[in-house]
Each structure stands twice: as C-alpha cells, then as structure tokens.
Amino acid sequence: MREVFCEVSNPRRFEKVVAMAAHWLGQLSHRVSMLAVAAQGVMDVKEHPIHTILADFAISLENLASTLKKLQKELENQSPLSPIRFQHLKIETEMTSVERLVMALKTQSQLSLLLSYPFLLTKLHSYRENLSRDFESIIQAVVCSGVVKQQVCQTQQHLKEGPPKLGPKEQAALDSLDMIIEGSTPQKCKELAEQVAEYMSLDLSQVAFADQLAEVKKNIGKAEIFDDTIFPKYLHNCVKVLEKGLAFQEEPAACDDDILSDPTMPPSSEGHIKEVFAPTPPLSSFICPITRQVMKDPVQVSSGQTYERSAIEQWFEGGETTCPLGVKLKNTKVKPNHALRQSISEWRERNYVVRLHIAESRLRSSQPNQQLRGARDIIAVCEEDPVNKNEASSRKMIPLLIQLANHPDTSSTLREHCFNALAALAHGHQENQDTLVCEGVMNVLVRSLRNYDEAEPAIKLLKILSSTPKTAEMICRMPDAVLLLVTFLGHEKEELVISVKSVLVNLPTTDKIVVHMAEANLLIPLATRLVEGEKESKILMAKTLARLKHMPESSKILASSQDTITALTNMTKSRDADEVNAAIGALENLSKAPRVGTVISACSGLEVLVKLLTSQASVETKITASRVVANVLAAVGDEWPQSEDRDADIDNYLDTFIMLISSSARPTTNALVQSHLLQGLFSLVKGRDTGEVTREMLLRRNVFSVLTPHFKDSRLETRRDSLRLVSSLSRKHGAEAWLAISIQCGTLKFLVDMLSAEEITENEELDAARIISHLPAEDQNLTITLAQQFNIVPHLVHHLSSKNQSLQEACLGALVRFTTPETLDLQKQLADMGVIPALVAFLDSRRPRTKIHAAQALANFSRSSSRLIRPVAPNKCWQCFAPTPITCNLHGSLCSVKSTYCLLEAEAIPPLVTIVAEDKEKVAEAALEALYTLVEDERHSERGCNVLHQANALRTIISKLPNGTPRSQEISICICEKFLGIPHYQHALGASAQMHIIAIAQQAPPSRTKEIAGKILNQLELLGSLVGSNSNIFQQSSVSAS
Q: Cross-referenced CDD domains, in alphabetical order (predicted)?
C-alpha cells in the first residue's frame, strides 16, 4: 500500500507532502474525466441498454472528477492543523480495471454488448462500490469547506445509486435474455431470437443478424472482458439458443413447388416432405441448476440433487461445503447418475433425428435462406455429437451439399456454408471423406480456389481431405490445383496460410510439386529433396534455387541449413558439369545473404570453391564460383569462423588469389574472375576480424607490384577493383604504394590523367584521387613532379566543387601537400584560385576527414602569413589629411585572404573553435593546429591571444584539455602558456585554468606537455602551495622545464 504521511511537527515535510498530494489529485481528476468521455462513447445507439448504463456511469465519473478537482484546491490551501495520512494505490488500481473494461467494450458488436448486459451491470455495480470506498479514504485526508463537503456527499450518493431505469423496449429484450436455457424448445428459441433481432431493428431472416451471431460465436474464446470464467460459458449458451431459434422452421413450405423445385436436386429417399417435426423440449430434471444447460455428465451430491460434474466440482473447489441450493451436505463426494444420463442421451438422439430431418428439408428448398439454415443445422449437430455424421451420410446429405455448392446460381455465402458443413461431416470420419471424393467434391473445391472470396472454406476442407494419401495424389493430378494453392501462401490471413501449408505438406513430394512450392517461397521440401533426393532431383532443386533470384533473404537463410550447404558443396565435386553448375548457381544465389556465406565457410565450402578456380572447369563455372567466393569473403571478413588454422587458411587462399590476379598468370585469368577475387580481397582487408592479418600478408607478398599493372588494364572490371584495393591498402601504407607506382613506368601519370579523363568512371576517379592523397607528403620531389610536370593542382581544385562528397574529400586530401610553407609558389597559386574560402566552407562539412584536411591546409597557409605581411608606412607630411588605413587586428598590417592568407580575414576562426568544442579527438586536433598558428609567432602572439579571446577560444580549449589526444594536449598547453604569459590574461583566466593544468601535470607522461604545464604552474605561483606527492610532481616538472 503506497502511503503519504506527514506530522504537523515537520512543516517543510508537510508542505512537500501537501504539494505531492494536490498534484496527484489533479492527475486523478483528469484521468477520471477522460474515462468518463471514453465510457460515453462506447455505444452510439442511445436506445441500447448498454448506452443507458454507461452514460449513467459516465455522469458519476464526471461528478467524481469535478469533486476531486475541488479537493485539490482545498488541499493546496490547507494549513498544517493535523497529520495527513493519504493512501491512493487502491483507487488507481480500480481506475485501471475500469479503463481496461471500457476499452474492451469498444471492440464489441451491438449483439455481443446486448448479451453481456447482465454481467456488465454487476461489474459496474462492483466498480461503483469500490470507487465510493476508495473516495472515502481520500476525503478523510483533506479538511473541506462546507460547500465542498456538500458536493462530496452528492458524489458519494450518486456512486451508491442503483442502475438507471430502462425503457419498456429495452427491458423486454433483457427479460428475454433471462429466459435463455440450452434445452429450450426450438419454438421458444425462435421467439427469443426474434425478440433480440427486433430490438436490433433486424429481421430474423436477414443475413446481417446471422453474421453478427457468427461473429459473436467466433470471438467467444476471446471473451475476457469481465475476467470471469462463467461469462464465456454463458455467452456460448446464448449463441447456441439463438442459433437454434434462427435455424427453426415452424411450418414446412406452403406447397410442393417450394421443395425440390430445383431440378438438379436429387429426390429424397422418403419422397416429398410434407411436414417437419419440432424437437421435444428437455425435462426440467435435465437442466443443471448451476449452468442452466442440459447436463452431459450428471452427478449426485449427498443431498440427492443432481448437477453437471464440472460445475459442482468447481463449486466445491472454491471452498463451498453446502449445496448451491442452500442445503447442508454431509460431504462433498459425488456419484454418477447413470439413469438420468441415459435418459438425456436418448432425448438427444431423438432430437438429433428430428433436427437432421429438418436440415434435409431446408437443403432441398429453393429458398437460399432456408438452404443456409440447413447447412448451419448440419454443422451444429456434427459439432454436438460426432455420431450424427453417420446419420447425415445415410440421408445422402453429402451429395446434396456438393450439388448445392456446385450450382452456378449459389451465392458465395451459401457455398461457404456448404463447404463448412462438408468439413464438419468429413473431420475425423474416413468413410465420409471417401464419399466426398467419390461424389466429385475435388473439382468444386479447385474451381472455388480461383475465387479469392470463396477460397478459405475450400482450403480448410482440402486440408482435411489431403490427410489421406490417395486424395493427396488426386490433388496433385488436378490441373493447376497446386499452383492455385501456392498463390495463397502470401495471403494476409495467417490462419489461411497455415492451412495452405498443411495441405502442401500432405501432398506427395514429386519434383514438380516441390518446385511449385519453392516458387511460392515454401523451401523446406526443396531443401529436404536436395539432401535426400536422387541425382536428377538434386540437380533440379539446385537449378530452382539458382533461378529464384528475388527470394527474400530470410528464405535464403531458412533454406541454407548445414545439411543443404554440405549437399551443394559435395555436388560441386562431381564430374558432371551440369551438376556442378547447378550447385554453384544455387550457392551463388544463396550466398548473397551474409549469414549464408558464414554457413558456406563453416562447411568447408570456401576451400572447395577456391580449388575449383584452379581446376579445368569451364570459364562460366569459374566466374560463378568466384562470385560465390567474393560473397563468402564479404560475410566472414568481420567474423571468421572459429578455427585454430585461421591465419594458415587465409595465407593459402591469398597465394591462390595472387596467382590468379597476377598479370603474368598463364593462361590469363578471366577478367570477371579477377574482379570477383579482388572484391573478396577488399572484403578481407576491410574486415574487422581479418583486416590486420590480411594487410600484413599482402604486403609481405608485395601486392602493390601485382596490382599496379592492372591500372592500365583495358578490362574495366579488373582495373576498377584493383584501384579500389590499392586505395584501401595505401591509406596506411602510402610509402609502399609509392614504391610500386614509381617502378611501374607511366603509372603516376596515368593516375593523374584519370582525374580528367572522360571515359573513366566516377568510382575509378575517386580511387585514383585517394591513392594520390595517400602518397607520402614529405616527399618534396614527388610534390614538385605532381605540380609542375603533371600540373595536377587545377584538376584537384576543379573537383572541390564536385557533388560527390567522397571525391571532394579525396581531392582535398591530395591538395594538402601543396599548401605547406615550403611550397610558397604553390600556396600563391592555390590562393589565387580561391581555395582558402573553400577550405573555410569545408570546416562545416559533416565528414570528419574532410574537416581534418581543411584544417590542416588552413594551418599550412597560416604559417606563411608572417612572411607575407608588410608593415604600414607612416603618413608623410603632405599626407596628414589622408585617411588612416585599416589594419588587421591579428597581424597589425594590411591583410587579405589572397595576399597574406590571414585566417582572421578568411573568417576561419569561429568554425575552428566550434570544431574544437564539438568534434571528435582527431578532428579537434587538426583544428587546434590551425588555431595555434595564430599565437605561434612571438611577434604576433599577444595579438593572436586577443583574437582567440574574442572568439571565446581559450575556455573551449581549457575545457577539452584533459580529454584530447597527446598532440591535442600539447598544442592546448602551448596556447595556455601564450595566454597566461600575458599579465591581464593571467589574472583573468588563471584561476579557471589551473585545475585542468594541474591534472595534466599529474597525469601526463614525461613529455614537452608536462614540462610546459610545470612552467605555467610556476608562473601562477602554485608550486609552493602544493604538498605531498603532487608537489613532487610539480617540482620535477619545474626542474625539467628550467
């Protein structure tokens, strides 16, 4: 029990508790108000009794919500006169139950709500009492004014009031529900059904009433509205009585023309039916006093009273020791009432005969409504007692139903009921199933499969019939039967799909059927045939797998068990080329799903496929096999199957791949095979699990010398994938790549020409730019060769405006080498081409590497600014009236972007500071390098500090000081040294910086960063005030700094 409690002696605690309680009352008031609106909207029909009682309940809830709101205001103004003890878990639990009930009622049909009225009335009365009780506990915690007390009393009174009075029409309908007993005579059941239908403004003969009744029956199992086990039984009893009334025909057809007027109907064995006898009502002794239904297993208690066994046992299990009628019992033992059970059995049998007689007469009628009732009658009697199936069959009802379903004028609804009646007769009755097949039901069912609306009952009947092997074979032989069934595997109804799969599983697994099932995405039979079938079957199954290109990935995974993959792998070892090609084609299609690639590798499939590439197989076979290899390597690169020989396996594969890729291979390997192997190598290089070991093994094999000759290959596939692999490897091994490129005559020029060649694809252009950007930047001869001999700079600048951001990034990375202070002429060329504003714009890119390259280039430009500035000459005497030129705040001279590369003039400082504050460590490091150039030169150091201070850069740099890379920390501490060497910055910023600098001095390893930190702390005169180990650290730093 959750409780809020506060004594007067603790005023602060009291105020807090009062605020919490008032807030909770406000929330509860809103919740009750919303529930009242929901209850009001359950039923739109105002005359419906459910609407009447829910509307009254909603008014009670509205009154309760209003009162709770006023109590909230009273509580907010309450003074600490007495302790507060406030319990509110019970009312919240009760509200949750009411909300769940209202939401459940919204999903019910009009008929279902009407039938549930008695239970709902009891449930709402219980809710009213519980809410009133819980409301009382709330009132006791609040001191109310007289007006509020009066409203509280009115609310309680309204909650305790009984249900509202109903109109005569509503009351009559509810009174009829009280008379519902399972053993009621058909005439009585018909009268009750008519009263219910009339109240709902429907005619008993209308299909709408029957449909609503069928819907209620269908949802009986889901009837959990009242959390009561009795309610579903009561609902089932009501439906049973109404169905009996719906099916009852008081008088036979008026004339002979009304019966057997359809010439297609066979004559009855008993001649024309002149009259229909009504079933006899049950004796009162047949009815259980608890369930009010005819008993199935009557038992006597010690008082001599008879009950249904399950009902009385449940009564005793609840702890009762008296008879439900109030008689005290000696014990709770029960004994079977065999005589009564025999009497009930004989009564049922007599009534079944009469009901089947009525059903037959209705089926032979020409009126669709009567025929519909006849089909329902058969379903009902078969469900009540399976023995009735024999009697129905002996009356020739099976051919009667089949002919009725086959008639062209029969409606879809009637045909559906005919199929359902036939299913009821056939379920669990082999003789009736054989009769159905002999009477030609299969043709009717297959014809109905072509009609989407009629297919569901037909499939359910086929599910029953297909359990017999002979019938299953017949289904297979029928034209289009399997194909039509397969089309329903994608149906939205899950139950229908399950029925179709059950039918297909029952069918004999011929190759043709298995292929049809696979085409409909039912692959388990195909996988089984692939593992267990004969050679020809296996080839057909493998070809089918290869042909189904649009198979969902989930289906590929489902079909690719270890047994399936092992079977396909073994097929690739065959000497039969057709079998090998079929298996490889299947593996190629399946391996497109990454998880399947892992299974292939685990089943030694990769080893078999690699061997196949060096065999005497056809070129087409090798191309497909190499594609499978590429798919498998893409799957296992991130997670290689656990094996102690992983490195040895990869080493062996690389030997084969390098041999096949090499341009010196004889005979020359097919371009597509080389392309697929290069793709596989790329996957291994990029893989989380295999990347490091693969790169090491490839470099040991001098892979760049193998790949660079392919740059000039006329075959697009080989050239494209070689460039991509070299682009990936050269990122960390640019020197090795440059060594191979320099040896191959004309390769560097070819890479440069690719940046402007029209016949080159965009991906090739991108990889060429990346390779150039990865070449060692410290090689000045290479820089001069690229700039002067191959004139690469204009091409790189041109691509900075490309829409391809990856190409922009690669060309920007290649340009960085041309922005160093050592290449002042190239800097001038780039500045004149407008590169510096473009670099500033790239600082706002979403790509981290682009921002790194831009910051690096700007740092290079900024380091040259000091050499390019010129001091402003003082005015001559004759120029005394001339305006004073505006100088740069950073350099104190006339600066511009193109002439001095000034970062302040380029407006690069704010985005650089933003990068330091927000971006990842490596990106922030590059931005710090650029910012450090502003204070690096002692001549402009103070001006640079002023500019950075105006951009609020120092606080950002200090806050990031402990978390950066070692280089970032070194740059940051150097900038701090510049700032704190200026007196007014030392006084203004020293206190905020000292803790971060102390952390660096303590944590950093012996380095320049630690030395500078100690030097700064000496400047701040902090070393003398520190003791212990920290003081020793600072002293060591100070000594090393001095």
A: RING-Ubox_PUB
Residues 448 and 360 occupy one common structural domain: yes
Q: Are residues 120 and 24 in the same domain?
A: yes
- What is the C-alpha separation between 428 and 405, in angstroms, rounded? 22
Helix (H) or strand (E) holding 94: helix 89-105
DSSP, collapsed to helix, strand or coil, labels residue 87 as strand
Q: Are 301 and 427 found together in one domain?
A: no
Strands 335-336 and 298-300: antiparallel
Q: Which two tokens stand for residue 354?
A: 């009469």
Domain CATH number, residue 424: 1.25.10.10
Cα 262 to Cα 249, 366, 1015: the distances in Å are 20, 6, 113
pLDDT at residue number 192: 77
Query: What count of other Cβ atoms lies within 10 Å of the Cβ of residue 471?
Result: 21
Question: Coil, strand, or helix at residue 259?
Answer: strand
Work out the widest C-alpha separation in the chain, in whole angstroms: 141
pLDDT at 181: 59
Distance of CA 775 to the CA centre of its chain: 45
pLDDT of residue 81: 39
Q: Are 435 and 398 in contact (CB under 8 A)?
A: yes
How far is residue 182's CA from residue 234's CA, in Å, rounded to a whole number? Answer: 10
Cα separation, 195 vs 407, whole angstroms: 35
822/722 Cα distance (integer angstroms)? 34
Question: CA 1021 to CA 1002: how far, in whole Å?
Answer: 17
Q: Nearest 10 degrees: CA dihedral of 950, 952, 958, 959?
A: 180
- Distance between CA 937 and CA 915 in Å, rounded? 23
3-state class (DSSP) for residue 107: coil
Within 8 A by CB and 6+ apart from 900, the residues are: 865, 868, 869, 888, 891, 893
Cβ atoms of residues 929 and 859 within 8 Å: yes
Residue 74 lies in a domain: yes
Q: How far apart are CA 438 and CA 448, in angstroms?
A: 18
475 shares a domain with 357: yes
Q: Is residue 601 part of a domain?
A: no
Are 407 and 496 within one domain?
yes
How many whole angstroms separate alpha carbon 926 and alpha carbon 843?
Answer: 11
Q: Which domain holds residue 492?
A: 348-507
775: which 2 tokens?
Answer: 């070449």
The C-alpha atoms of residue 623 and residue 49 are separated, in whole angstroms, by: 76
SS3 content of the chain, % helix, strand, coil (to 5): 70, 0, 30
Taking phi first (over 0 means left), then psi (-120 to 50 degrees means alpha), and beta for anything else, what does residue 901 get? left
Q: Report the length, in residues, of the chain.
A: 1042
Q: What angle do CA 107, 113, 115 make, to 5 degrees?
A: 140
Question: Do 67 and 152 sit in the same domain of this protein?
Answer: yes
* Other residues' Cβ atoms within 10 Å of the Cβ of residue 724: 22
Tell me how far apart the alpha carbons of residues 216 and 228 are, in angstroms, rounded to a whole number: 17
Residues 242 and 378 placed together within one structural domain of the fold: no
Q: What is the pLDDT of residue 1037?
A: 41
pLDDT means per 10 residues, the chain with 1042 residues, are 42 62 72 73 65 76 78 64 48 74 74 74 75 71 66 72 66 63 68 76 69 76 58 75 69 35 37 51 87 89 90 87 84 90 89 88 87 90 89 90 90 90 92 91 89 86 90 82 80 85 82 80 84 91 91 88 92 92 94 91 89 90 94 89 82 90 72 92 91 92 91 88 94 92 90 88 92 92 92 92 92 93 90 92 92 94 85 55 66 82 89 86 90 87 88 83 83 86 81 78 78 80 43 40 36
Show the tokens assigned to 150. 């009066």
State the pLDDT at residue 59.
Answer: 79
Reduce the DSSP state of residue 635 to 3 states and report it: helix
Which H or E run contains 262?
none
Q: Does a structural domain hold residue 403?
A: yes
- What is the DSSP code (8-state) at residue 300? E
Count of domains for the chain: 4
